[in-house]
User: What shape does this take?
Amino acid sequence: MKIGIVCYPTFGGSGVVATELGKSLAAKGHEIHFITYNQPVRLGSFRKNIFYHEVNVSEYPLFDYPPYELVLASKMVDVVKHEKLDLLHVHYAIPHASAAYTAKKILAEQGIELPVVTTLHGTDITLLGRDASFEPVISFAINKSDAVTAVSNSLKNDTYKLFGVNKDISVIPNFVCLDQFKLEANDELRAAHAPNGEKIITHISNFRPVKRLEDVVRVFAEVRKKVPAKLLLVGDGPERNRIEQLCRELRTCEDVIMLGKLKNPVEALSISDLFFLPSEAESFGLSALEAMAAGIPVISTNTGGLPEVNRHGVTGMMSDVGDVEDMTKNTLYLLENKELLAKFSKQAKERAKDFDIHSVLPQYEALYARLIEKQAVANG
Ligand code: GMT
Assistant: This one.
């Protein structure tokens, strides 16, 4: 199949999922065309069956706001026509699904019909969904897609709750390429960050308010009073300054290591004992799944799709949003019991196998094949 993939090429989970999906499809012999404004962060080196089409919005004095969605739609039309694509798979409703609808209509005028799949990732629904100004466009774009998938049952339910959506939504969960997480213990790296054998707790995110980094630091400050520990913060974003300030207030700076945006979290995970994800909302929690794949138990909230990934008392522990005391208790419960931590680590790794790319990829392939076949029948 020849598939066009449209996504945000950044560090966010939706971009990571779209990129890993494209890479795995290409490895299976499908021809994959990424249509984005930058090389996707996780794309890595150039590989067989993968093509990249950059969306360039030129500066023009008349535009206070660059018309990205229109340029993207034009690019989709161009790539579909010239690369003879069979299907477009867009990740994130705004503006990708609405731009895909525009492209689809332009192509239909030229006698080219092709199906569009939209995958909903979370923030497009749970955060933007609360902004009434986006509602009509999001509902329309979802309803006009030929197929819609959501990354968890929780996100599917939220979509029906928040939008006027009458479309069937299939749940295809996020996945992990387990082979990428088979790392040997790196004692040298571990000793560099935790020279006195401290426990290492890691958090990875885009440092947006929804991630509640303040809770990460507050729990860590409490835990550190009982167990010598280091906190690795991977990522960057709007909360960074506030968090640095909080670390100064709580006098934890010397034990908090800011690693910035890492293209791949595997090395940080390879030296971690525990992963924190105390988010306010999380449609799935890809970073938690990646931690589990690396054998790192997860201390998270029980919001959104997190209970569909993390298992309380098995792969980690969950608390209500904002319950710093409970998260502290859970963290100590695991860190203070070596055997228990090792047991949870094993169970987390085992659970991650349920989300192995090799079992999720066929679900996307079957969906594409069904839509392409339906289109062929409709085309006569
Ligand atoms: O919040 C983020 O981490 C970024 C955001 C995105 O759109 O890339 O992540 C969303 O999509 C991920 C991939 O499907 C999910 O794993 C995240 O849970 C989801 N984020 C939220 O729902 C807040």
